[in-house]
Amino acid sequence: MSLQKLFATKVALALALLVANCAAAPIYGYKVVAKYPHSTDSYTEGFFYLNGLFYEGIGLNGHSGVVVTQPETGNPVQRFDLPSKYFGEGVIDWGPNLLQWTWQSHTGFVLDRFSLRIVSQFHYGGEGWGMTRTAKELITSDGTATLRFRNPNTLDEIRHIVVKEGSKTIDQLNELEYIKGEIYANIWHSDRIARISPIDGHVIAWIDCAGLLPDDQRVNAESVLNGIAYDAKKDRLFVTGKQWPTVFEIKIVPKSK
Residue 125: inside a domain, yes or no? Predict the structure, then answer.
């Protein structure tokens, strides 16, 4: 290929990427595949699936911690309670441990995953909201439009992305899940989940979960969608919310008009 053709190809690719990033992201709907019980005492701030169990980070001062439950029954098999001064937030597994951080206390905890005993603490700047991971990095949210990639051993920031749909920044990013190379993010007080490129932060698509839980089944105005878990072995996607009575297994489908 000549230099002229190579340059033209690169320009065409750059323009295509620019157009894609400026266009509104497509919106998908959902189909409920199954329902599982969920405690309305659980103010969900973190959520993931591992080895047949749900791991959940629970918020609210005096009620915060980590609870591990059997999906089919909703029964807890393990629980860790944070001291009452901490408001628990996102939780994720890393090796043999769990990491949970807190909202405004700048303090997080490393727990042994099998006993839920505290191994150590860590500290960080800013607020703690959601947390997920790739094979090498943690990904965290703080309620803004910025997602930070962190060293899992030190919590130091490696890089960050700003989430945008076209030129519009998308803030209030909350609970996170890393699925098939994309970041799924709850938007606080929204029934939509954003699918985000970890490379440049653009919104690839939206999942509209409106109507998933009727309003009359919500405890209060703060009982919002917040909790995304993925079973990679069986390709199952689970979502729930703060103090919701149900965990929903859903399938992403084209949105009906």
Answer: yes
**pLDDT, tens digit (0-9, with 9 covering 90-100), for 170-213:** 999 999 999 999 999 999 999 999 999 999 999 999 999 999 99
CATH of the domain at 126: 2.130.10.10
Say if 237 falls within a structural domain. Answer: yes
User: How many angstroms separate the CA atoms of 219 and 177, rounded?
Assistant: 25
Give a yes or no: residue 53 inside a domain: yes
Rg, C-alpha atoms of the chain: 19
Question: What's the domain range around 209?
Answer: 27-254
Q: Total structural domains in the chain?
A: 1
The predicted-structure confidence for 19-69, as pLDDT tens digits, reads as follows: 555 579 999 999 999 999 999 999 999 999 999 999 999 999 999 999 999
Assess if residue 10 is contained within a domain: no
Question: Could you read off the pLDDT of 92-125 as tens digits, one per residue?
Answer: 999 999 999 999 999 999 999 999 999 999 999 9
| Rounded Cα distance, 156 and 243, in Å | 32
Query: pTM for this structure?
Result: 0.90
